[in-house]
């Protein structure tokens, strides 16, 4: 062992695999990597700095698998409109602040869902960012949607005279993944109403295959049975939202390894807001959001039992869905839907890392990048303590942040 090796003694360890937490472990770190995980009975490394976290639970740094960094979670219409109409210089500051909020809650990687101007992708590649963010960003640039259909906030329509494939591959060549929109929004006024697909299976498949040739996976916004079915059969890598998609689609996703990012917290946020503010047309709309949430939690439980791979994503930037803190709420919703704490943490760490193409992240194991968090709580209380992170380690280095979550 060299003098640069550091050991962390922890009370409990959640390793990101979904396995039950274990007690009294020591992990050793060198050159930004985890070297060993030791039990109290193993020989202790001599002459090494030991950090005492024996009153803490340690777990992998978190990943939000669906965000919109350009938008904030404010419910004030004038502010949301101002953010959309602002310049890139203004939006650049907004993105930086949202990344800071994610870091406060232990989120070390985010998977963006697109914005109309492609500003998140531009920000990621902006050499003027000094210092560069510690939060890893994956961005599609601008999503593609059908002309006249939902999607303006997160992308652009397929241009006249072009196929979906041609439009998707024409620009944003440096993106990390392709984002396609294949349905409308989830209805907040009528329970269970589904919108029609925006593209057929052949159109989707052609774009997905073209993106895959460039090493780009495809995320598809889809709610309802048919929009999800077409996207899964076309070979997409993930379904975003997936409200009212049904058990048959979940079985299909489990069979083909398609990841689901449910974003259930959006319905909780809408319901809370509408209940608090009322609605000028119909006060029952808050109840629709509540029912939508309940149905989505039932789907999450079904998907878990069927073996669907789930990743925690929040749709942060939607009204009432705040960057950073909403991940805590989504993890809690996963647990209320039947996941163990350890299983929910896996969905918010290892599963998200694999979805983002970060194979050395999201798990505490020898050889993995040393990114982890510690909270002063036993494992069962970790989700409630995510706003009180006591220790952050990023690539083997302790990170001290100004400000509180």
What structural class results from the helix and strand content? alpha/beta
Largest sheet report: 7 strands, mixed
Written as H for each helix and E for each strand, in order along the chain, the element string is EEEEEHHEHEEEHEHEHEHEHHHHHEEE
| Gyration radius from CA atoms, angstroms | 21 Å
Strand content: 15-25%
Rough shape?
globular
Low-confidence stretches: none
The percent range for helix content is: 25-40%
Oligomer: single chain
Distance between the termini: 36 Å
Key structural traits:
seven-stranded mixed β-sheet; 405 residues; alpha/beta; globular
Question: Would you spell out the secondary-structure blueprint of this structure?
Answer:
Blueprint: E1 6-13, E2 22-30, E3 33-38, E4 49-60, E5 62-67, H1 77-85, H2 88-104, E6 107-112, H3 119-124, E7 136-138, E8 143-145, E9 155-157, H4 164-170, E10 178-181, H5 201-213, E11 218-222, H6 225-233, E12 238-241, H7 247-256, E13 259-261, H8 265-277, H9 285-306, H10 325-336, H11 341-347, H12 350-355, E14 372-375, E15 389-394, E16 397-398
Parallel strand pairs: 1-4, 5-6, 6-7, 8-9, 10-11, 11-12, 12-13
Antiparallel strand pairs: 1-2, 2-3, 4-14, 14-15, 15-16
Helix pairs in contact: 4-5, 6-7, 7-9, 8-9, 10-11
């Amino acid at each position: 062992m060299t003098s640069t090796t550091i050991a962390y003694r922890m009370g409990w360890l959640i390793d990101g695999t979904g396995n039950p937490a274990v007690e009294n472990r020591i992990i050793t770190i060198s050159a930004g990597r985890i070297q060993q995980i030791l039990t109290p009975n193993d020989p202790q490394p001599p002459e090494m700095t030991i950090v005492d976290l024996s009153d803490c639970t340690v777990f992998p740094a978190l990943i939000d698998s669906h965000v919109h960094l350009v938008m904030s979670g404010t419910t004030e219409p004038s502010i949301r409109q101002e953010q959309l109409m602002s310049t890139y210089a203004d939006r650049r500051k907004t993105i930086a602040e949202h990344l800071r909020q994610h870091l406060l809650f232990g989120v070390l990687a985010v998977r963006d869902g697109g914005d109309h101007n492609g500003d998140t992708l531009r920000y990621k590649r902006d050499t003027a960012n000094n210092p560069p963010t510690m939060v890893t960003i994956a961005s599609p640039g601008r999503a593609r949607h059908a002309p006249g259909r939902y999607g303006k906030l997160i992308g652009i329509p397929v241009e006249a005279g072009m196929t979906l494939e041609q439009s998707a591959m024409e620009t944003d060549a440096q993106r990390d993944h392709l984002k396609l929109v294949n349905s409308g929004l989830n209805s907040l006024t009528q329970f269970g109403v589904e919108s029609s697909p925006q593209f057929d299976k052949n159109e989707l498949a052609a774009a997905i295959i073209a993106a895959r040739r460039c090493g780009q996976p495809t995320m598809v916004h889809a709610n309802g049975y048919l929009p999800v079915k077409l996207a899964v059969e076309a070979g997409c890598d993930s379904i975003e939202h997936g409200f009212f998609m049904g058990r048959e689609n979940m079985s299909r996703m489990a069979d083909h390894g398609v990841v689901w990012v449910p974003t259930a917290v959006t319905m909780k946020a809408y319901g809370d807001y509408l209940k608090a503010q009322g609605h000028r047309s119909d006060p029952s709309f808050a109840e629709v959001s509540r029912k939508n949430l309940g149905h989505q939690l039932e789907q999450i439980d079904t998907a878990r039992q069927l073996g669907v791979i789930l990743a925690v994503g929040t749709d942060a930037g939607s009204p009432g869905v705040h960057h950073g803190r909403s991940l805590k709420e989504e993890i809690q919703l996963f647990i209320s839907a039947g996941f163990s704490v350890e299983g929910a943490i896996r969905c918010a760490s290892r599963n998200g890392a694999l979805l983002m193409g970060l194979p050395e992240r999201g798990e505490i194991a020898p050889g993995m990048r040393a990114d982890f968090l510690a909270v002063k709580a036993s494992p069962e209380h970790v989700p409630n303590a995510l706003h009180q992170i006591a220790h952050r380690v990023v690539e083997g280095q302790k990170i001290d942040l100004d400000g509180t979550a």
